[in-house]
Amino acid sequence: MRLLSSIIASAFFLGVSSLGASAAACTHPSVRREWRKLSVVERAEWVSAINCLANLPHDDSLTPTVDPSVSNISPVNTSGSYWDDLVYVHMDLNTKIHNTGLFYPFHRFYVQAVENSMKERCGYTGAFPYWDWSIDAHDVEHSPLFRESDHISGVGGWGDPAKDFQVQDGGFRHFGVAYPVPHIIRRNFTLQPFLPFGDVPMFTNLSQYANETFTPAEVHKLVTWTPGDFVGFQAYMERPEGPHASVHFILGGDLSGYCPSNAPQPCIPQPTFSANEPMFFFHHAMVDKIWYDWQHANSANFWAYKGGSVQNLTSVQALHDWPNGMAPDLHFDSTIPADGMFSEVAIRDVMDTTGGYLCYVYE
């Protein structure tokens, strides 16, 4: 069950969140665009900024807040990079930010925090791009995205099976990460990734083709989801074989949380360290865009919010009863945890992407 829990489971603008002074007005929001709509120069700047974060030293501000017996992760590696620190935040908070009411707010906050770091520490000037995986759902393996082998502007392709599926080309061919052990990021296209989970009761369709869950039709279903039904909207996105999990697992390697070959045994596969892979942030920017689109699809959706703070994946029935968390309930004034890496804000602050703390729209 611990494995299932792992599987499913400083703002750039000068204003402060509603926890302090009012945020600065958002008068010129940045525009987030699909990766393929960026110029080669814009792509190169993004790849360079990500690599820059991975070449910065560890930040002692990182302060894990979850008991290791719950998070089930290794201690902080102080010889790691600033990028590894960003990854560790996701690792540490894993059980708090999946299948709870923090899923959408935290990941919106998290992508923004990474963009802020790229700007403040590495001089990035662009808006954060997203990967519209619905475009590629019909043939993810041969997507043009994974044929971008240019060492300056490409994200690289699938890994080499003879080298533990380590990425061999593109701008991340030397992208080293610290968790769970030091290694180069890995990708392994896996069309039916749920087959190994026969002993995990929550997975009810083991033969599911992952790409069938994030087609344009499936995205349309989410964007047009029942007005005001935030819980159902999240449950459909985050269900065990839903689009969120399927994109993680179809890319295999780090994004799916499979252990590197050099990891000491026993090593429990766990997507807590899925944020190793820069594609994680493309993926979650798309997840955020779907929330954004749903928010703007109907006036009843914009401030729709409900969720608990305690994850319960103990049974199929528990997941059905509390798909986004048990009590104590979260509310707009609840704090989004940041493990000391960023100034904490309230859920209210991330509900509106042009509200002041955030200042962006999607194309």
UniProtKB/TrEMBL annotation:
Secretion signal, residue range per the UniProt entry: 1-18
Annotated Tyrosinase copper-binding domain residues: 82-296
UniProtKB keywords: Copper, Metal-binding, Signal
Keyword presence, Metal-binding: yes
UniProt-listed InterPro entries: Di-copper_centre_dom_sf, Tyrosinase/Hemocyanin, Tyrosinase_Cu-bd
GO terms, molecular function: metal ion binding; oxidoreductase activity
UniProt-recorded name of the protein: Di-copper centre-containing protein
